[in-house]
Write a structure and sequence with these properties.
alpha+beta, three-stranded antiparallel sheet, about 30% helix
């Protein structure tokens, strides 16, 4: 497992969180997993609507 910081913008506010992710994910699979984690984060925090994924980095 690797830890990634995922950042996104929703309604002009930037959000960021850290998530443990499978270290075998690369390329499109990693991007898809990050987008799924953003959707989960938004649902858990009652954020609705569109978002812009602004960054992800291994930490």
């Amino acid at each position: 497992m690797e830890y990634h910081r995922i950042s996104f913008i929703h309604n002009d506010t930037e959000y960021s969180f850290i998530k443990a992710m499978n270290d075998r994910l690369v390329g499109y699979a990693l991007m898809s997993a990050c987008r799924l984690e953003v959707q989960i984060y938004m649902k858990e925090n009652n954020l609705r609507g569109k978002y812009i994924l602004t960054g992800m980095a291994k930490i």
